[in-house]
Amino acid sequence: MNPIYDFTDQVALVTGAAMGMGLATARAFAQSHASVVLADLDGNRAAQEAARIVEEGGTAIGIACDVTDEAQVAAMVDRTVSEYGRLDMAFNNAGIQVPPSDAADEPLENFERVTAVNQRGVWACMKHELRVMREQGSGAIVNCSSLGGLVGLPGRASYHGTKHAVLGFTKSAGVEYAPRGIRINAVCPGTIDTPMVADMLSGQADVMAEIMKQQSIGRLGKAEEVAAAVLWLCSPGASFVVGVGLPVDGGFTAH
Sorting pLDDT into bands at 50, 70 and 90, what band is 4? Predict the structure, then answer.
């Protein structure tokens, strides 16, 4: 059973919120009485999921945002503040995978695409969220890294490079903004049962078998388990936690 938080009168923004870990986190924030903005490249799906939260008694809106476009990111944060008056918590979750590749053969377009979303996208979101939180003198940001931000695996150099970068953003901005009342941390999910992971592992039974050997808990993670970690990092329970990359990986990185 997850802890119960009371985020009444607080506002949460989640990117990549139309499915998977982002959606689970948005729903968890709403169930904890926060007003939630669900942002996603698929704005229609984000709006549908926000409407479902409202039907269930929560407060939410869904908007379209391409995090590779800084102007859209700025507009997303502006819309959040114009709708709800403030921004207290953010989960910068939007991310993509690219096909595994020998480091000597990876196409430039794959490197540029994964970097644009996973690295520059998190940078832009954090930048514009901090502009609001800096004025408030309060806030909590959780960036989504990966077990790939903590280790290296063959065929994943570009993807893991972006996830290592997210931890660099988190640590540096974390120590910069902690004195101003803003905590910045990251989660490092392992192999979680989400649509993106299903796509990644389709047709790669050998890869899945290898991952499961190192997933000590013996199963895939659940999106709700990542959401629980994000909510804790945003809660008063984590008030002394700053600049951390928290593994949520079933023991993978403990090997």
Answer: confident
Q: What is the phi/psi pair of residue 39, to 5°?
A: -115, 140
Interval 179-236: pLDDT, tens = 999 999 999 999 898 877 777 666 666 766 777 777 789 888 999 999 999 999 999 9
Structure tokens belonging to residue 111 = 């490197």
Distances (CA, A) of 85 to 24, 73, 76, 193, 248: 24, 17, 13, 35, 32
Q: What residues are annotated to the active site?
A: 159
Cα-Cα-Cα-Cα dihedral sign, residues 111, 19, 31, 220: negative
| Those residues with Cβ within 8 angstroms of residue 229's Cβ, 6 or more apart along the chain or in another chain | 187, 246, 248
Q: Which amino acid is at 172?
A: S
Report the mean per-residue pLDDT for the chain. Answer: 94
With tokens 């709800």, the residue in question is 84
pLDDT for position 204: 66
Burial class (CB in 10 A: 0-12, 13-18, 19+), 67: buried
C-alpha–C-alpha distance, residues 178 and 243, integer Å: 9
